[in-house]
Amino acid sequence: VSGNTSRTAFQNPNAPSPTANTGAVIPCLCVTEPSHGTDAANLEVRAEPDGDGWRLNGEKTSITLGMNADTGLVLARTGGAGARGVSAFYVDLDDRHVSRSPFDDLGGRSMGRASLHFDGLPVPRACLVGAEGAGFVSVMRGFDYSRAIIGLACLGAAQASLDEALQWARDRQAFGRPIGTFQGVAFPLAECATYVHGARLVCYDALWRKDNDLEHSAVAAMAKFWAPKLATEVIHTCLLTLGHLGYSADSPIGQRLRDVIGLEIGDGTAQVSQLVISRHLLGRAYAP
Ligand SMILES: Cc1cc2nc3c(=O)[nH]c(=O)nc-3n(C[C@H](O)[C@H](O)[C@H](O)COP(=O)(O)OP(=O)(O)OC[C@H]3O[C@@H](n4cnc5c(N)ncnc54)[C@H](O)[C@@H]3O)c2cc1C
């Protein structure tokens, strides 16, 4: 989090600086609302003026780490309709004006998701991040980075599953031979390895372009559209290669599959990624 965040914004004066990167403060990003996911620019949580600051009212939902986060970067409406009326606030979540309720998810269980209810949370001016009305655009820019990172995280899960499936193809015997000698087993794994390699290069390209201050929204969207979907397909193929053992909860493969499916949705679905790519290819005039 950058901008005009300040330690004075926190009720706990001993809390580590939010920029220290020590891991001592767990933050979360609060964009999604019950009625606005993909259509995030129309969000309804309001920051009402109150003295020199604001009070936050409304509900954010589907927030990763929502039950455990100390702080949240919350997008809220300070102005009129649309993206330009949205500001970002970095707030303390351990406040009596915030209540939380957990989700029971298929995957991603180590982090979990939650709904956060803001009931008049006081927000001093020091908690405003960036300029008033600029919150939406700056958070969306952050997605151009996180989407490539999420792609790599999914491909890591795919690669681990592929490594296990390849080892199983060497070790497991059927009809008196290792199953890896059957093309029906080996070729799907060869195909998976090829696509994983390609998708990984797309993710690296997005990050390289960002590091070199080049336009990278479209490539990051390609990474987000392709890598989680591919990882889901690859892990599924690996599970089938392991036969009945792959279907057991004793195998880590099922957990990986459930985890990467969540990342097909979080940070933007395949459809929204494809909207970004299409807009880049065709021009803004062709955006729906
Ligand atoms: C594991 C996970 C973690 C998450 N973590 C966070 C978090 O930390 N913070 C946060 O704020 N949110 C988080 N989210 C929420 C996530 O960002 C939203 O779920 C996502 O943006 C989609 O919104 P939605 O679920 O409301 O779906 P909707 O927007 O209701 O969409 C439903 C379906 O319609 C499609 N659709 C919608 N509009 C269009 C269109 N114009 N063209 C084509 N198709 C369209 C979507 O792609 C989707 O398939 C998380 C979600 C998951 C699953």
Question: How would you describe what is shown here?
Answer:
There is one protein chain. A 4-stranded mixed beta sheet has the order 1-4-5-8. A 4-stranded antiparallel beta sheet has the order 2-3-7-6, with no helix packed on it. A two-stranded antiparallel sheet has the order 9-10. The two termini are 31 Å apart. α1 packs antiparallel against α2 (183-211), α1 (135-171) packs antiparallel against α4 and α3 (217-241) packs antiparallel against α4. It is an alpha+beta fold. The protein has helices spanning 135-171, 183-211, 217-241, 253-265, 270-282; strands spanning 27-30, 46-50, 53-64, 71-77, 86-92, 98-102, 113-123, 128-129, 173-174, 177-178. 34% of the residues are buried. Residues 1-16 have low confidence and may be disordered. Residues 28-32, 37-39, 62-64, 108, 113, 262, 265-269, 271-272 line the site of flavin-adenine dinucleotide.
Short description:
By secondary structure, the chain is an alpha+beta fold. It contains five helices and ten strands. Flavin-adenine dinucleotide binds next to strand 1, strand 3, helix 4 and helix 5.
